[in-house]
Amino acid sequence: MNIGKYEVKLKDKLGWYDLEEIKNEMVSGAKLDNSGIKGFNGEAMLKSKMKLWELAIQEIKDGEKVIPFSLFWAKELSQSEGNALDTAVEELSKKK
What we know:
The chain is of the alpha+beta class.
């Protein structure tokens, strides 16, 4: 798929362990007290999204140059590029 000037190749589907890693990132943000979950740290949601992207993206190319996934790369995406990638990766995460 094209994301701006990048060609991004996603996995066909995520494996069990991939999904467990993503869940672990989400759960790390849970705020607990004696009665159970009391709230959630929003930063954990962003970290879990970046973990999902990291696990879902197989390759990023800028022309012939292969770029490794990084938080720096993700931060440089425009809103429309990030939204397009997020939509594609979320759909991938729902595949069984």
